[in-house]
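Before surveying the methods themselves, let us examine one representative protein, written as a sequence plus integers encoding its fold.
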Amino acid sequence: MNFLQRTALAARSLKGVSIGDAFGESFFGETDAILSQIQQRRLPPTRWEFTDDTVMAIAVFEQLEACGEIDQDQLARQFAINHDKDVNRGYGATARRILREIGAGGDWRAIAQNVFSGMGSMGNGASMRVSPIGAFHFDDLERVRTLAIRSAEVTHTHVEGISGAIAVAVATALATQIKMNGRSITPEAFIETVAGMLPDSDTRAKIRKSMAIPPDYHIETVKTILGNGSQITAPDTVPFAIWCAAHHLNDFAAALWRAVAALGDRDTIGAIVGGITIMSSAEANVPAAWVDAVEDVETSAFRTGMKQNINDDP
């Protein structure tokens, strides 16, 4: 597979991130009304704008588009530049602090390590932006793991934050293999393969635990076991997102409806699930209306690199 074909795959995953992100963001509001809309599968009025999840994923994608690698210094700079272009994209307080300090000329290594009393961040921010790496290097899981770690370390040095990034990147690679190689995989095998690439962590333990949860479990039970992102951490976000993706690999739309059903950090879970499942889903299950409606990454202020068409056949 040549470089441009790989870039097209990464661009497609980025599109999935942006759709899932904007989709999830539309389901914030009065809880009873939101739950009713989810039950009826009816979208609330929305502008289909993406959040910081997609903004940061754009920077990761552009690293791949440039050279297929992750240059941590360049990535840190681009994160800071894009943050300053629009600070109202939903960044959390810790992310704002890190990106402001990097933008002011600070060393990202020291900045990322020093948050949370020197423990580093275990947040879900490294997970929400990493899917393009898995799509680009789908046929080399060790390479995916290495680059996921590099992309995470710029802002997340805690093992949990890093584990979340690896999990999402590997899941995206597996989903891409399904489409590219005509591969079939059970949800349990999908989850176990993801978990097997992770360091010892709560994130890995909860992902493994999700193998025992049937797809028809009541969402409140699933949320109690796996979390729903309300704590904004990787262990509270990524296991549920991987479980959603594993049980809806062929159905992008159903995966996103399931992703928002647990409420919580629904834009981030949507971004993660969208970036994974768009790579394996049947085209009929990726609603054209959503593809057309979502804020265009290519024309956004955050896009600085060469344009790609996600509909190009890789």
Notes: DSSP finds 17 helices and no strands in the chain. Residues 306-314 have pLDDT under 50 and may be disordered. The first helix runs from residue 3 to 25.
